[in-house]
Write a structure and sequence with these properties.
Helix content: 40-55%
Strand content: 15-25%
Structural class: alpha/beta
CATH superfamily of one domain: P-loop containing nucleotide triphosphate hydrolases
Strand order of the largest sheet: 2-7-1-8-9
Number of strands: 9
Shape: globular
């Protein structure tokens, strides 16, 4: 059961500290039929391993600000006082047109903004196994300076304190198990009574419901 064309798509918010493995789990979630990914915009330069348009659209600060003024973002924020990140509204419109559910990979700040506008969005927080493991993962990537790693760990500490705002928590200590859990959340959310499909509605009506 997926979103029907014209129906408001089910929106999944996936957040977690840098290094928690949320991108890997989002890929697992996108294996569930009837889902699509929302590509974020950012003003930071692409890393060597990143292709434009896959996870991020890389745009200038001027273009980002223009889109903010035009109201083109569902949510947006400046991270670490440096680069800006935002979720274009057009992905929500495209998901509705295609009859698909939309998966957002965004930080805690962005999640709060989306939940204000879309209270029915399903939010999932990815937990690393432990602080020590998170630090090990960040160092193993070899992408950040000592200062950047410290900054990410401090941000992770702050984000972890806001876990209670999320509907689901997934511990990513075993990626295969965590992947199955996040897929199960996607399927179960579609069966919520508040998400009655047209098919279910007709069945209930046939019984006088």
């Amino acid at each position: 059961m997926t979103a029907e064309q014209g129906q408001q798509p089910l929106v999944f918010i996936v957040s977690g500290p840098s290094g928690s493995g949320k991108s890997t789990l989002v890929q697992k979630m996108l294996q569930v039929p009837g889902t699509m990914f929302s590509v974020s915009c950012t003003t930071r330069p692409p890393r060597a391993t990143e292709d434009a348009g896959k996870w991020y659209d890389f745009i200038t600060e001027e273009e980002f600000n223009r889109r903010v003024q035009a109201g083109e973002f569902l949510e947006h924020a400046r991270v670490f006082g440096k680069h800006q990140y935002g979720t274009p509204r057009r992905w929500l419109e495209e998901a509705q047109r295609k009859g698909l559910d939309l998966v957002l990979e965004i930080d805690v700040q962005g999640a709060e903004q989306v939940k204000e506008k879309l209270p029915q969005a399903v939010s999932i927080f990815i937990l690393p196994p432990a602080r020590e493991e998170l630090e090990r993962r960040l160092r193993a990537r070899g992408q950040d300076s000592e200062e950047a790693i410290y900054r990410r760990l401090e941000r992770a500490r702050q984000e972890m304190q806001r876990y209670a705002a999320y509907d689901f928590l997934v511990v990513n200590d075993d990626v295969e198990r965590a992947g199955r859990e996040i897929q199960a959340i996607a399927v179960a959310a579609r069966c919520l009574r508040g998400r009655l499909s047209e098919r279910a509605r007709k069945i209930l009506e046939s019984f006088g419901g």
